[in-house]
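call fold(seq) -> tokens
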Amino acid sequence: MRKIIFDLDVLRSFVTGMELGSFARAADRLGRSTSAISAQLKKLEEQAGTPIFRKAGRGLALTEAGETMLAYARRLLDLNDEAATAIHGAELEGWVRLGLQEDFGETLLPDVLGRFARAHPKVRIEARVVRNAELVERVTSGKLDLALAWSDGFRTEHTDRIAEVPLCWVGPAQGAVQWHADSGEIMPLASLEAPCLLRNIAVKTLDRAGIGWRISFVSPSLGGLWAATAAGLGVAIRTPLGLPSKVRQLSAGEAGLPPLPKLDLVLHRAEAEASPATERLASIILQAVRQTIDAVPQSRIFEDVPDYGVVTA
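ret:
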């Protein structure tokens, strides 16, 4: 069997088109013509020796082989960019102080730290996983260089809007929610302790829908909130990102709950012109966020996000 050597430039066009939801937009971003992108996709199928796309209505969808190809393409590109970054930035030194919202502490942080440490072993990272209010305070006071946080429109002086992610009601993984809007009973709401951005959104949404509510459980951390929700002590509000297996996203209209808005994911920076090490870390965070959010339906990555000097093939 002949060895297949995939073209990284072709893989980048493929991944970019899938992430943007349009190969025409991928052509614009990559500075290529749509016909050139089409030729690359044809070349990819020829190299793979199997169909990557199938017809789905008026558009195209990935075949099973295409989904496998997409996962490996991302890994190959990440490794390529990581190697390029390591070569060109191997002498980076110093400290970077990073803050993340709790939703990303277990899902995003290990990947980001691992990739950055491999590329820049001389740079030390101080990471803090806390809630939004503390992240904003620490960035504005200069105690953090970067902070990945949720936002309902609030911006610090140097903020990049990365993505828009849907909010959802969350209940126990096992069994139905023990409450329904038609029951006439007050809805039990499990929440993080105030101040809490998502708690405020939940209350406003319920009030607008004319649904009575009570705070049935309060926790200072996500771990406590997930435990209470899994035990059926109340319904919680969150995004689909980072949900543990003991809870689940409730389907639209389940238990008569009203639809929720979307929430912005932003990257706060302490300074407009950060250190090279900080910019490199911001680049890796952005790449990791794109990959994480790509799997969440109805999410949208904003195309005007700075690339922070990402090295591309």
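The radius of gyration is 22 Å.
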